[in-house]
Amino acid sequence: MRRRSWTAVIIGGTVIAAAAGGVAGWRLSQHAALPRASCGSAVTHRLDEGTRALSADPGALACFSAAARDCRAAGIEITETGTGTGTSFVFSTGPGPRCQATELSQAYSANFGGSAGPVTPVPCRLAAVSGAGVTLGCGGHDVLIPSAVSPR
Fold it and tell me: Model's pTM, two decimal places?
């Protein structure tokens, strides 16, 4: 009887410690979320100077292009998807010297219950607005926010 009681205490303590560690790990993997983008969102597999939008909220890409063209405040969320992981970006434009632009990014993982990294800000410059979309220079590389979803 004594041996069983001791085993129950060890098992109970192990379960409590594991649960506490899981909660602590979950809390550590949670970071602030990206802000909501006023124009909506789009999805791509690769974000670069030749970005192809796979899907987008109705009007999201046109909204961001028009705002950038007129140097009005607006934002668009672009999610770069992979297999179980990816990065979400919020690009924003607004009035200011030479039309201010900003990139906020946050890596995520859908694996093992999901997690999100910290939000990372990068200053950008508005390089061009054309029929193809909005080109921003962010952190030493150009990214195209296309003006339309790519045909499949």
Answer: 0.77
What whole-number distance in Å separates Cα of residue 42 and Cα of residue 62? 11
* Structure tokens, 34: 């990206």
Give me the count of residues in the chain.
152
Whether 101 and 93 have beta carbons less than 8 Å apart is answered as yes
Using alpha carbons only, what angle is made at residue 79 by residues 75 and 82, rounded to the nearest 5 degrees? 170
- The residue-averaged pLDDT of 5-32 equals 48
Q: Is the dihedral of CA 119, 120, 125, 131 positive or negative?
A: negative
d(CA 102, CA 8): 56
Of 43, 47, 88, 39, nearest to 64 by C-alpha is 39
